[in-house]
Protein 1
Amino acid sequence: MLRPPPERRGSEGDAPPVFNTLREHPMSMEELKWPGIVLGLAILLIVVEWKMAARKKEGVTFTDRQRMKGIFGVAVALAVLVYFVGLFA
């Protein structure tokens, strides 16, 4: 059984904040919602690209894979950008 950490005595500025619920935590799910949506849409686009490339006569080629990796890289960069815009807005 885990014991709660001992309370710190002293000035209030020294003690770290205690968060009882997820909503009170500064890294709440609201801040991760939009980057998750961006990544989800990118993965959906990659799946559509894969299906379209698989229908070609040659199948999925190296160039198709490179394009999908590029889409994923751009999506990760956009998700990070969306996260920081939401964090500092």
Protein 2
Amino acid sequence: MKTIQPIQSWANGQVVEATLLNAWAVNVVLNTSATFSYNLLNDAQERLQQGELTMTGEAYTKWTQDAYAWDWIAQQLNLTITGDYVPPVVETIVVQNATVVETPIVSDKIITE
């Protein structure tokens, strides 16, 4: 997934802002073409737009590394890639010197089975 220069779009009657591009190859015909699916996402990784692009001809022949495919997809969608997506780091909070109180479960029912 890549970060992109934010773009505004219209979805369900609202202006939305895409900040992430996700893409993956869904069909590769060796020596011929590659079809990529893509999603444009907001900061919360909610899908705003989706679609498919097919790379053929000279573009397909030049595709030897993933970076080329990312750049080609961005160019087709008129997007500017600004970097690799880095997921936020979730910090674990450790509570020290905490008192654990155990409460027994008490029931007045007698199980005879």
